[in-house]
Write a structure and sequence with these properties.
101 residues, alpha+beta, 4-stranded antiparallel β-sheet, 2 helices, 31% helix
Length: 101
């Protein structure tokens, strides 16, 4: 299993635009319904930071690059990230999980 996480922050004025784009991306992923894929887009408690988590079963390709809504989200995320430091996906190693991964 592969788990990728992306965390980024935006200016308060950009929060609603990011939320809307995340909702569209999640809807597109739900419509595509690829097997072996779990995804969550989260807003953190500070109200301006976001965390996206993607879990892929072994040998499952990442479906996000093929979804227009995901590409649009990624472009928006890179453009709106505080200080315009493009967020980078980091692979995480799951040490334990209770029905999450």
């Amino acid at each position: 299993m592969t788990v990728l996480m992306v965390q980024f922050s935006v200016e308060p004025a950009d929060v609603s635009e990011i939320e809307s784009a995340a909702e569209k991306m999640c809807a597109a992923l739900t419509d595509a319904n690829p097997s072996g894929v779990r995804f969550a887009a989260c807003k953190l408690a500070d109200g301006v930071s976001f965390l996206n988590i993607l879990q892929l079963e072994d040998q499952t390709p990442n479906p996000l690059p093929s979804l227009e809504a995901a590409r649009e989200f990624q472009q928006l995320m890179a453009a709106r990230a505080v200080n315009h430091h493009s967020p980078v996906a980091a692979q995480a190693t799951v040490l334990g999980s209770h029905h999450l991964f």
